[in-house]
Amino acid sequence: MKTTVISVLGTKTDAHGGSGPSRWHTWRPTIGLVQQDGFPIDELHLIFSKAFLNLAERVKADIASVSPETHVILDIIELRDPWDFEEVYEKFYDYAKSPCFHEERTQYYVHMTTGSHVEQICLFLLAESRHLPAKLVQTIPGGNNVLQSQDPKGTHTVIDLDLSRYDKLAKRFEVERQDDLTFLKHGIDTKNEAFNKLIETIERVAVRTTDPILLNGPTGAGKSLLARQIYLLKKQSGRVKGNFVSVNCATLGGDLAKSALFGHKKGSFSGAGTDHDGFLTEADRGIIFLDEIGELPLEAQAMLLKAIEEKTFRPIGATKDEHSDFQLICGTNRDLEDPKSFRPDLLSRINLWHFTLPGLTDRREDISPNIDYELDQFSKRTGRHVSFNKEARLAFMKFALDPGTLWRGNFRDLSAMITRMATLADRGRITLEDVREELERAGGAGQRDATAKPRPPDGSETIDLSGFLGSDYEERFDEFDLAQLSHVISVCRTSSSAADAARKLFAVSFKARKTANNSDRLTKYLARFGLKFRAVLR
């Protein structure tokens, strides 16, 4: 493989010793670079201004005498000021696009020892961004005194900017990424595999792009909460500098939507007594979350499309456009495909990153950790620490996991139920009686499916599993499994036989003829816990 090095001429360090014989007894970084043992260089690009042509020619000649196999190419880049970052980066950027720095089977290096600090920084940035597909090489003198070095060749160090090659750094980045994922989930230890994969994708998108994001999902699925967490994640890493602005488009209608989003000028309509900055101005350099985006009037949608694409918009009554560099996150709980109510061109623009958040009924295994989260939030709000006793938690989990529990409001409903029980709990403990009262309220509020088969009465719902599984059962089994087992035992106790219980528990499978022997299926399920049908009967 060919080795090519890009280096800036050291107008002072490469001139050490002048043109006389003494120069061979001093350290000159570019000359020392081509003399490094184990680091043969096939091609050296030397960058300099015309004013230093004589020095560049002398360095080229000296390289030919000590490393004749190195082909030196003199590249003139005129800089008015080598300390002007904008000028240096612009010219080095154009230089880096040369095809000769993107050849196959060539390993490129950037020499980081010579040139002004600004030139070194610009070369580093181009290598780090892969505009120059190069590693870094640093040379240092062989002794303490540069001008009187005992070893004029010095030494060198190679730095590979591919961070994935560094195990310790890779581990730290992975820890940081896991922290980001936990942050997006509010620290909730979610178990639903599909949801966790969704959050992993959202995290990658959030940290890598400023393109619009569309969050779809039923009311109460957590769209607003996730949008704010995306903002906070980008904020803490410096990816956004401005505000988080949350707008419910369902509250905006007609000209109010245009005024609220884009602002207006004094006198532009009746009641416009002063100039008003809109939400887009407020979100400059930040994020605006437009919830229920499908409710936005069509005229406002057209203005929003222009603002997304051009980062400019015209307030009502204004004579010129205003600028806002915002990132857009949209939320909706309905289909946006109807062109009569939502512009197809706007949908195409905001639909680049489209994520559908599942409702609570599709994430029932996440109910338990969300209960802990809601209790923790209640404690922070009120200063009161509240928890369930064992029987109460098991009873509530049984209700929460029951297929007949609708969770129409999703996590909002769960939060409301936990808040009510925690508020009414005496001495910081939610009891079985508290749960029963709450379930009565929930049934009246339409949380239960009217077509679902009635559950056993409250007195038979809570099963003392310690007699079956031992006193330490809570340490050995997940709440999800315990609540399910409790329900299975309740059904078994109200059935005339194992076959009768199996018909109730696997009614859907029985009708679809998916299993040949449901009794055997029930027997195998109980065997997972070391139980038999007759053992669970009273």
Question: Describe it for me?
Answer:
This protein is α/β, with parallel strands linked by helices. 43% of the residues lie in helices and 13% in strands. It contains 22 helices and 15 strands. It has helices spanning 29-33, 53-66, 85-96, 117-128, 167-184, 193-208, 223-236, 255-262, 279-282, 298-310, 344-350, 367-382, 390-401, 411-424, 432-444, 458-461, 466-469, 473-476, 479-493, 498-505, 507-512, 518-527; strands spanning 2-8, 43-48, 71-76, 106-111, 134-140, 155-159, 213-216, 244-248, 287-291, 312-313, 322-323, 327-332, 353-356, 387-388, 429-430. The chain has a 6-stranded mixed beta sheet with strand order 3-2-1-4-5-6, with helices on both faces. Strands 8-9-12-7-13 form a 5-stranded parallel beta sheet. Strand 1 (2-8), helix 1 (29-33) and strand 2 form a beta-alpha-beta unit. Helix 13 (390-401) packs across helix 19, helix 14 packs across helix 15 (432-444) and helix 19 packs across helix 20 (498-505). The chain is elongated. It starts with a strand and ends in an 11-residue tail after the last helix.
The multimeric state of the shown protein is: single chain
Let me know the largest β-sheet: 6 strands, mixed
C-alpha geometry: elongated
Class by alpha and beta content: alpha/beta
The count of β-strands is: 15
Radius of gyration, Cα only, in angstroms?
35 Å
Number of helices: 22
Question: What is the strand arrangement across the widest sheet?
Answer: 3-2-1-4-5-6
Report how far apart the termini are.
80 Å
Helix content: 40-55%
Stretches with pLDDT under 50, minimum 5 residues? 453-461
Indicate the mean pLDDT: 88
Portion in beta strands: 5-15%
